[in-house]
Amino acid sequence: MANQQQDTRSNFVSLVNIIGKRDTIEAEILNLLAELKKQNVTMTEPLVDEEGYPRSDVDVAAIRHIRHEIICKQNDCKELTRRIEEELYALHAEEKITPSASCLNVREVSFKPFARVDLVDENSPAQKADLRVGDLLVKFGSLKYRNFENLSAVARLVTENLRRPIHVNVLRCDKVVPLILIPDEWSGNGYLGCRIQPIIDS
Fold it and tell me: What is the pTM of this model?
């Protein structure tokens, strides 16, 4: 029993460390996105003019470097998310885990969805963030299953973060996918260009 409890505690400490690493990388991604914002460019905006020459109004080399860093860090986040899933499954597979503060903390980072994306408009901020119809929201900025009450909270968070990156985790094909969503004005309605429906527990 003592050895099992020690193994469980060790697994939990490992999980917390991995989550900490992912949080650090997420913060670095947000800082890099802010650097792009200062240059008035996005991750997908062309860096050449209509004639195919590098744009003279931006630092093309610096932007390419920042974009590369963001892509690498997003890949790192995906790998850490995969490891977090594995650690969570391992912890929950322990047959004799008893309720404790540690177990409650693990449940807080579990991936239980609270809303579903059932519409994504073309060329919208949601589509640019790679949100897809059928995605299940498990994290939307500070919102998670444990503190989500209604869609008004989502709307409030969006308006408070207009033109600022929001970290979103979605459950897609049994995998948790980290995304960066930037609410902004566009040619359609609202700041996201998607429709979100809350998931009501039966």
Answer: 0.49
